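Case 336 in the screening queue. Each case pairs one protein sequence with one candidate compound; here the compound is S-adenosylmethionine. For every case the pipeline is the same: read the inputs, emit a complex structure as tokens, and attach any notable structural observations.

Predict complex for case 336.
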Amino acid sequence: MDANQTMERQRDDHSTGGFGEDLTFHHLPVMCTEVVDVIHMVPAGLIVDATVGGGGHAAAILAARPDLHLLGIDRDEAALNATAAHLAPFGDRVALHRSTFGDFSEALTVVDGLQISGFLFDLGVSSAQLDQVHRGFSYRNAAPLDMRMDQRQQLSAYDVVNDYDEADLAQILWRYADERYARRIARFVVAARPVIDTSALAELVRQAIPAPARRRGGHPAKRTFQAIRIEVNGELDQLAGALDSAIDRLVPGGRCAVLSYHSGEDRIVKNRFDLAATGGCTCPPRLPCGCGAEPLAVLPRRSGWTPSGDETKNNPRAASARLRVVERIERRVGQG
Ligand SMILES: C[S@@+](CC[C@H](N)C(=O)[O-])C[C@H]1O[C@@H](n2cnc3c(N)ncnc32)[C@H](O)[C@@H]1O
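Case 336 output:
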């Protein structure tokens, strides 16, 4: 792995200005002990942290296994700046790359030659992104309707809120956040256009949700902001393909671990992992397989892991987390 790559990355980012100059990154890695435990037994080689963020999980993995290298991917420039500083003590064991995880083949050219022993996907948004008020991820402060993880991207929350038609908006709120009042919220938003900032949007959502329902389930705008963020960043579009290709690239004994935070994400993870573990077998349950399906992986624990009570007390962001893991097995002779 190229030692200069990490340092070059730091130098480049420091010269970009804007977010690139902010090296503070406050994010408590979720279920860190469990993540390190499940990655701990993989063969020596490369771990691809596909959502490296501030590098909290990455640092814990590198510290626990001195024979592992790590490629950290993120599409957020500010996150990569912070993680370059945080992971600098691990020197040439670390390389960083700015891209989406939807296509990590380009990122992998940076670390050519190392076998891939593990993948980690810690989905969604980081606390640091929520805390950077001007980025518009949070309903708590007035800010432009932005929510782009990658600032080079065109589509922003402003476009979704002000340009999508009412039916599409309602569909997004329902599909990405199970929002019960999706249609009402969409109607209120469309009637109030232009909606100029995050405070205006949060207030419209509050008005759209009937008073008794507002008292349950946290801030009334939480689900709407989550859904719009997922739409802006196309968060679910790339996930299935990225997981399939991660499992495909692992060495036998290698593991792919995913932390998801809502049912839409977890459904995709469960489906892809089940498919890898059954090989797409269509035989009736409890009968021996006769359809020729070839499993690629096993599931160390079918239902995955959830955080301890202590962790959710100290880090409310962990409350909805689920960790799922799949372990790669040998292909049978004759398979591609
Ligand atoms: C929950 S945070 C990860 C935190 C990290 N595990 C840590 O310990 O600091 C998720 C990160 O993934 C990034 N991200 C989300 N979707 C992505 C995608 N499709 N491709 C690349 N990065 C993505 C976000 O920018 C964010 O920094």
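Case 336 observations:
- The longest helix spans residues 263-278.
- Residues 17 and 78 are 10 Å apart (CA to CA).
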